[in-house]
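Class, carefully examine what follows:
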Amino acid sequence: MAQVTVKINGYAYTVGCQDGEEDHLVAMAAEIERRIDSIKAVAGQTGEARMLVMASLLMADDLFELGQSLAATEVTAGTASPSDPKLERKLARLAKRAEDIAAGFEHP
């Protein structure tokens, strides 16, 4: 298992990931940093936990809308039903992966 240190909002976090996924993890951290920068531009600097919660909520909202859009597209195309088990499994795996990544954060 690889270890990557990423910097988010000025804090370094060491995170474990599968070998070969280091660049992906760095890209995800950069996306979080981008979200935090946009929050700071609107709301100013707030506490670390609040910034991470706000960035997480923005990303969760995007993920939810993407899932809804995908489901609607598949239903329209006739390739899935609104309660497609395959789509539900994909979304569950994605949610599990996000939870695993979040659990792997270590604050030095």
